[in-house]
UniProtKB/TrEMBL annotation, chains A, B:
<keyword id="KW-0805">Transcription regulation</keyword>
<dbReference type="InterPro" id="IPR036390">
    <property type="entry name" value="WH_DNA-bd_sf"/>
</dbReference>
<dbReference type="GO" id="GO:0003700">
    <property type="term" value="F:DNA-binding transcription factor activity"/>
</dbReference>
<protein>
    <submittedName>
        <fullName>GntR family transcriptional regulator</fullName>
    </submittedName>
</protein>
<dbReference type="InterPro" id="IPR000524">
    <property type="entry name" value="Tscrpt_reg_HTH_GntR"/>
</dbReference>
<dbReference type="InterPro" id="IPR036388">
    <property type="entry name" value="WH-like_DNA-bd_sf"/>
</dbReference>
<keyword id="KW-0238">DNA-binding</keyword>
<dbReference type="GO" id="GO:0003677">
    <property type="term" value="F:DNA binding"/>
</dbReference>
<feature type="domain" description="HTH gntR-type">
    <location>
        <begin position="12"/>
        <end position="80"/>
    </location>
</feature>
<dbReference type="InterPro" id="IPR028978">
    <property type="entry name" value="Chorismate_lyase_/UTRA_dom_sf"/>
</dbReference>
<dbReference type="Pfam" id="PF07702">
    <property type="entry name" value="UTRA"/>
</dbReference>
<dbReference type="GO" id="GO:0045892">
    <property type="term" value="P:negative regulation of DNA-templated transcription"/>
</dbReference>
<dbReference type="Pfam" id="PF00392">
    <property type="entry name" value="GntR"/>
</dbReference>
<dbReference type="InterPro" id="IPR011663">
    <property type="entry name" value="UTRA"/>
</dbReference>
<keyword id="KW-0804">Transcription</keyword>
<dbReference type="InterPro" id="IPR050679">
    <property type="entry name" value="Bact_HTH_transcr_reg"/>
</dbReference>
Length: 267, 267
């Protein structure tokens, strides 16, 4: 869906930038179903582009079914245009969760190599300069639509316990624990990033699309690094859900993650 | 810092897109300090642009201090170019946390109005069509650099208990609890979004920069919605940290958030 509109607009075209920005606001909920978009003149001023450019961006939004344009009543976000991200991350497994029944996910292995650890991986996992890591790039899809681009680094001594085939067919955590690794703690850091050319192609989005990015460092009980994950996620396909509960009394009152229900939302 | 390089490149220029993508990879850690960038020809092919365009993007990266260009040895990410996001979110307070000592944050109130709840807010908070909400837009800065653009919606009956001045100077949670609200649970959903013109100006970034986006719905003990937050965060200034611990035995082994240490990272 997302690629269709962008494909109508050449790379580097101003209309493409306006299209991506408005599409993001619609799929991100800032412009919800039924909301009116500002008029063409207002949009043109706001983006410092011509009205012709605004019209081309709106044409692309209309052709992808995100907006309705009616003479007289202006432009509105189409009801049902955004179905919400179908895949969420489950907090107790750190694996993608199928929120709506009937979804299936598939992983595709794009690359699988053994090489010296890049310095940022070596530093995070506590490896020495000569240590080798298995580097794998996988794209995960839900119902044939790609939603995540995952690069994982695992020290060779652990990674030799499972095969390329295993990795394409099993969650990495289960392969690590099957390999005798006593996983103890992880640290995740969440940010945002733009899709570069290779990632954009793999995730079937336009170059310059905003992606959710996640870095995860996993340590075993002895404090040795056993996995470094760099994940990029399509925001229209994937969301990170965090249900929280307010606990404690008085000055000690604080938030705690509400877990144990497969990450179900309390709302 | 981020604006400087983009300011050298006109809106809509292909070089700007290449610049933003590479800058994101550097500040996001995909291209860490010391890493070599691909050669100009490789970058040109990868982005489907000319080498002249690639050179303009690299000039902008060099002028903002993100890369070093040396004849013969190519282009590398500058050591110390990225200091890491200085502000992280504390899980027990859901407030920005000052990771490095000496940082101070300031909030600036951009707008403060009472109006009918937009439908996506009304639906999330369980309001009826005629209910009025206080809508406030605040920009929060650390050491005079803006890092978050926060839009909050609070039902009028609660919001009338505090003033515009209170909101500019106190965390909203403390104002809600001071107003007698028994906060019980929250649900946060994290995604990514592109900066549109207004947000870009407020956060002092280029239009089209990738931002971390967060939606939060807060409910009281009776299940009534008391706050809807839509937050946009600069990824170079803000990160969402999630320390996790692996607990349980056998098939019941799972992840739990590791909290209680002010969100300190275990790594």
């Amino acid at each position: 869906m997302d690629n269709t509109g962008a494909a109508l607009l050449p790379e580097g075209a101003k209309a493409r930038r306006v299209y991506l920005s408005l599409r993001d606001q619609i799929t991100g909920g800032a412009l919800p179903a039924g909301a009116s978009l500002p008029g063409e003149q207002k949009l043109a001023e706001s983006f410092s582009v011509s009205r012709v450019t605004v019209r081309r961006a709106l044409d692309a939004l209309a052709s992808t079914g995100l907006i309705d344009r009616k003479a007289g009543s202006g432009t509105t976000v189409r009801e049902g245009a955004v179905s919400g991200a179908p895949v969420a991350m489950n907090f107790t497994t750190l694996m993608p969760q199928l929120v709506e029944m009937g979804h299936t996910t598939q992983a595709r292995l794009l690359s699988f190599t053994y090489e010296h650890a890049p310095s940022f991986v070596g530093n995070a996992l506590g490896l020495s300069r000569d240590d080798t890591v298995q580097t794998a790039i996988r794209v995960r899809s839900a119902d044939d639509t790609p939603f995540s681009y995952l690069t994982t680094y695992v020290p060779e001594r652990i990674a030799r316990n499972y095969s390329e085939d295993d990795l394409a067919n099993h969650p990495l955590f289960s392969l690590l624990e099957r390999s005798g690794v006593a996983i103890d703690q992880a640290h995740q850091s969440v940010s945002a990033s733009l899709a570069g050319p290779e990632v954009a192609q793999a995730l079937e989005v336009a170059v310059g699309t905003a992606l959710l990015s996640l870095k995860r460092v996993v340590l075993d009980v002895d404090g040795n690094g056993v996995e470094y994950l760099s994940g990029l996620y399509r925001p229209d396909m994937f969301r990170l859900e965090m249900p929280l509960t307010r606990v404690g009394q008085g000055a000690a009152r604080h938030w705690e993650p509400a877990i144990g229900k497969d990450g179900d939302s309390p709302t």
